[in-house]
Amino acid sequence: MKTIKFMSLLACFLLLFGCGTTGGNDNSSSGSNPGSDEEAPNEEPVDVDDQAVEDLTGYIVSISNEGQTRILVTGQHPSSGGSGTSATMYTLEESTKVENSAGEPLEAANIMVGMKVTVWNSGIVAESFPAQSGAIKVVVDEEQDELEQKAIAKALEEVEAGYPWHVEEVTEQGEGLYKVTLKNLLDDSEPVDIEVEVKE
Fold first, then answer.
1. What is the rounded CA–CA span in Å between residue 33 and residue 26?
2. How far, in whole angstroms, is CA 48 from its chain's centroid?
3. What is residue 179's predicted lDDT score, i.e. its pLDDT?
4. Which residues contact 64 (CB under 8 A, 6 or more apart)?
5. What is the side-by-side order of every strand in the sheet holding 177-184?
6. More confident residue, 85 or 63
7. How many Å apart are CA 46 and CA 33, to the nearest integer?
8. Is 69 helix (H, G, I), strand (E, B) or coil?
9. Who has the most CB within 10 Å: 5, 79, 192, 199?
């Protein structure tokens, strides 16, 4: 009789213990189940401007449109304090923002050789000369005189293409007459002065 009672109690204990363990496993597994109904927290969209780093302010000295638009800009990095010059070839992606310094949007097709621009990138630059990088944002200086832009573009037509020419100085000599001083950043040659005549 004692044996029967003992066996009955043991069976009940094992049954209760087993149910408790199974319930515990179900609870723990449901908490870690990737297919559960719990929603992941919403991720806020990333603002492209927040990732942009101001890279170079200078003049566009060449533009190529072979598949993608690429602009060669020579000028100064903001960290240089206006000393030293650099050249970077920027690739304009579909996501690249183009605007003037008043924040008004422009089309990439509006970009022209001779324009004064400031370019933002992600901070990633291929070490070469000229350097190469993708452009996140291009800001065209709206205060640049249109005739100055045309004078620079015309002067660049007078020098050998394919070199990173730096625009050292632009001087208005008279009505529609400009002297543009260019320096080839690839060699130690002296700057060249080119006089051009432009019209509105």
1. 10
2. 8
3. 98
4. 70
5. 165-174, 177-184, 192-197
6. 63
7. 29
8. strand
9. 192
Give yes or no for a contact between 132 and 125, defined as CB atoms under 8 angstroms apart. Answer: yes
Residue with tokens 């189940």: 33
> pLDDT class for 131, splitting at 50, 70, 90?
very high
CA-nearest of 96, 56, 84, 53 to 72 is 56
Residue 119 tokens read as: 């370019």
Is the previous residue joined to 78 through a cis bond, with omega within 30 degrees of 0?
Answer: no
Q: Are the CB atoms for 85 and 76 separated by under 8 Å?
A: yes
Task: Report yes or no: 135 and 121 within 8 Å, Cβ to Cβ.
Answer: yes
Q: How does the average pLDDT of the chain come out, rounded?
A: 82
Helices (H), the chain: 2-32, 48-51, 146-157
CB atoms within 10 A of CB 75: 23
Using alpha carbons, list the distances in angstroms from residue 10 to 1, 15, 20, 21.
14, 9, 15, 16
Strand 192-197 and strand 131-140: pairing? Answer: unpaired
- Written as one letter, the residue type at 40 is A
What are the pLDDT digits (tens) for 19-42?
Answer: 554 444 444 444 444 444 555 445
Report pLDDT digits (tens) over 142-171. Answer: 999 999 999 999 999 999 998 999 999 999
